[in-house]
Each structure stands twice: as structure tokens, then as C-alpha cells.
What does this fold into?
Amino acid sequence: MKTLLSPEKRRWFIVAIIFLAIVFNYVDRQIVSILKPLLKSEFSLNDSGYAWILNIFTICYAVMYPVTGWMVDRFGARLVMFWGIITWSLACIGGGLSRTIGQFGFFRGLLGAAEPTNFPAQLKVIAIWFPGKLRATANSLCVAGSSIGAIIAPPTIAWLAITYSWKVAFITMGAIGILIAILWKLIYRDPPAHIMKEATTSSSGEPTAAFEWKQLWSTKSLWGILLIRFVSDPVWYFCLFWLPGYLQEESGLTLAQVGMFGWIPFLFADVGAIGTSAWSDKLVRKGYDPLKARKVMLTRVAVLSPLCALTPYLGGAWATLAVFSIVAIACLSWLFTISVVVAEAFPVKNVASVLGIAGGFGALGAVLFNYFVGQFMGTLGAEKIFIAMAFLHPLAVLILWTMVRPEKPKAKP
It folds into this structure.
């Protein structure tokens, strides 16, 4: 395979494998939301107990995200990605073999600890294999796997659970992940020198210097990106972890109907987010500064997010699906493009670390939001939760414009 593929061709095969890994990364994490009523019955859980299961995953995810970002910058994407996929796949299989809530919680925590390897590794690969003129396209093709995973998860998991059992759904997805890890091991190589030089050289023709780990924390843009992920990620986590259950418990859909229709918002999210990424690239071609182009696009799509406040008042499953099909476009556009913002605001040697730290803060925001939803869904009512979500992306817009800018380390005397 090494002799058959030129570096220019190999990098697109690498993108394809990352895409597959992200697809099943999202399927594995979303299984619990699709099977929420079954799992609540199996393990005698209420909404607070279900939120506890979500937060075991999400806390481990938040803690390990910065660690894996550092590991990718330190040890490279090839090694970290391989062991990450292996570990999260075994954790998914373990969830299917669990007999007690303690065992199930352990394996969800292990899944959460392993899954963050995916995105820092993905961004690092894009940053060292692709020059700026191809980077946004390659990045969007990789991370499109997140919404494709969310699209195929409802029908696939529902079919496996209905035809066989919920345990088979977990075991099957874990086995597929192991095959993807083997494929990654066979295909991935570090880029040759000429590809690396093209990707890691600034527009001025000079190689970009890097921040030391401690120096990163003194940059205003890092804190801006952390706050953006902290306030905006919870809306996407709601789509993943709470929306399928909401459609069953509040809108009256059966598990089979969720399998038939629950993927619709994620299809809209995927198509819309790829479209908005292309739109921001078009702004660059028109002469916009790349970072400004991303800011303009994100600002305009953020106006879609407040529509979620209408959900409880429209009534019916189809109205909920319609509203969240629009809201999901905003959510995924932000998740797609904030990675590109990181790559454009920071030196290439720091991008995995920055994304890892930011992802951890995003997951921390989701932990707090999961707790809030689990505690108050049945008391305050869903409408209060939807109103709270409506303000999160507009707040992220304010942070984006006031705090995020290109960062370069100061020259040493």
C-alpha cells in the first residue's frame, strides 16, 4: 500500500478513514439516547439516573480531552488515534456485556475517556497533511462523520435492538470500531517532508513558531475558544443525548418510529454545516481574511439556534423534528468551523492541544447542562430548558468577536 499510494492520494484515504472513525464514534456515544426507555427499564433508572449515566461519560470525556490533545502533539496522531479507537470499541462491547448499572457506568466512563482521542488527532492530521487552501474542505469532510453517525444511529440501533437485543447493538458497533482501527494502522503514515513543509509554512513563507504549553494559557484567544465551546456545545449534546428520548417520552414516538425519523435533524445538520463551511471558504476567495470569514458565517447561522425556544409550544413530533432540523444546522456549523478557527488562530504545532483543552471545556458545559436537564425536566418543564438553550449561541457570537484573534508567540530575545 505504501508504494501504491502517492502522498497526495494517501491523504484523501486518511480523510476517509477518519470519517469512518468519527461516524462510529458518534454512533457509539448515541446508543444510550436511542435506547433510553429500554435502558431506564433495564437498570431501573429515572431521568436523574439517566443523567448520571450521561455524565459519567461526559466527565471522563471532559477530563481526557485536554490530555489527549497534549498526547497527540507529543506522540503523534498515528499512535494515539489507533489506541483510542481500540479502547472505545472495547468499551462499547463491554457496555453490551454489562449486567449491572455499575458495570455499565464503568464502560460508559471508559468510552468517554477514549473517544476524545479522535478530534485532536483529526485536526493534527489535517494541519500537517493539508495546506491552507485545502484545509477547510478536508476538515469538513472528516467531521461530517459526526452527523452521519447521528443519522445512521437511530435506524441501525433501533433495528438491532428490536431484531435482536439492546446488548447486540452495543457489541456490534464495538466490533466495527476494531476493524476501523486495523484499517487506520494499515493506511496512516506521517507526511513526507515536502507535504509537511507546505502545510506548516505560513503565508509569508516562514515556518510558524509554537507556544509552549504554559504560554498557551496566557493567550486571550484560548480563553475565548474555551468559553465558546463551554456555552455552545450543550445544545448539540442535547440533540445527541436528550432529543431521541424526548421524541419518545414527550412526543409519543415509538422506538421503531425514532429509528425511521429520528435521523432527520442530523441529515439537515450535516448538509447545512458542509454548506456553511463552503460559504465561509467562498468569503475567503472574495477577499475576506480567513478568520474574519469564519466569524461572519458563524454569526449569521447563530440566529437559527433561538428557534428551539418554540418547541414546546408547537406540539407534535413533526414540529419538534422540524425545529431541531434547523437548530442542528447552527450547532454543527459551529462545531465544524470552530476547529478551523483554532487552526487559523494558533500555530500548527499547538492545534491539537488547543482543541483538546477546548473540547474538555465543551464537555464540562455539557456535564452541567445534563445535570440541569435531568433535575428539572420534570419540575420546571421542558420549555424553560429550551429557552435557556436559545441564548447560548448568541452568547458564543459575542465571545467570538471580542476574544478570538490570531496568536503568535513572542520572539525570544
